[in-house]
Amino acid sequence: MSFRTIEWRDDAVIMIDQTRLPGEEIYNSYSDFTSVAEAIKGMIIRGAPAIGVAAAMGVALGAREIIADTHDSFFRQLENVCDVLARTRPTAVNLFWGIERMKRVAEEHRGKSLDKIREILKKEAIRIEQEDLTICRNIGKWGATLIPEEGTVLTHCNAGGLATAGYGTALGVIRAAHEAGKKIRVFADETRPWLQGARLTAWELMKDGIPTTLISDNMAGFFMSRGEITCCVVGADRIAANGDTANKIGTYSVAVLARENNIPFYVAAPVSTLDLSLSDGSKIPIEERPDSEVTHIKGIAIAPEGVSVRNPAFDVTPARYITAIITENGIVKPDYCAGLRTVAGK
Ligand code: MRU
Question: How far apart are CA 106 and CA 101, in angstroms?
């Protein structure tokens, strides 16, 4: 890939600024955990797996910032670092997964010197980033088997290299199918209000030379009804034990339209996106974001001042609309409860 979403370099975290794409390819450097938390909140970095990596790197930075004489003091302050990072975005479970993994590793090495623990945390965060790349490639390998030799794949939001450590989940499936020589073209929903599809998915697929057509969200049904979409592949922010899936707002509508038109609807996500502690999707917390994301585009008002607005960032697609869930450990088909536990190793 010709860009890096996030990396640890010279004791700082470098992230491509996704608020500036596609116009400008700018890399920001963060050397303290509070600015990493702000970057997650402000969507400099976004996408569930990428948020998980950023949170883990934030914990590693925070550990380096802590001044402590005793282990008790260090671990108390580390808890605070984790709390600040955990308060950034509520829906993508990878955020909490990344933080918990870092906490567990710190606890496992409690007997070591504080400098040693700091070093171990840094290495763990880098490991999480590298593992994510391998995981996405495996999701791609499994998912490509579901993609026909020829056709048009519709995707929603950005579940690509920019939403992961690289390669992507839904776009990983598309990349792997393309690499395997399948003649596919992508329809990218623009994904109002934040325009992840228009700004990010179109940008990264065009960079890779994968034929891409941008449509506005309300066009998906038109193209499906005309027989122009072969299948849909999307990512996920949190998948409940029964397969109900939270993903970018608008995903539910795409899934319902796909069912109406007899089009397979696939979800691609790493096992770290599974939240088997939740029995179904109604329990997934849904983030609501600022009104200005709906009323303004690039600072320009597109609605009357003072209008009432709702801006949920995610919706939940009931499992019954999902043809299969593609993970790094294999493809799960309904009934999801047992299958998801198997791929999660539980
Ligand atoms: O608000 P965002 O941009 O973080 O939402 C991202 C999505 O909904 C993605 O589809 C999801 O995180 C999967 S990313 C591989």
Answer: 9
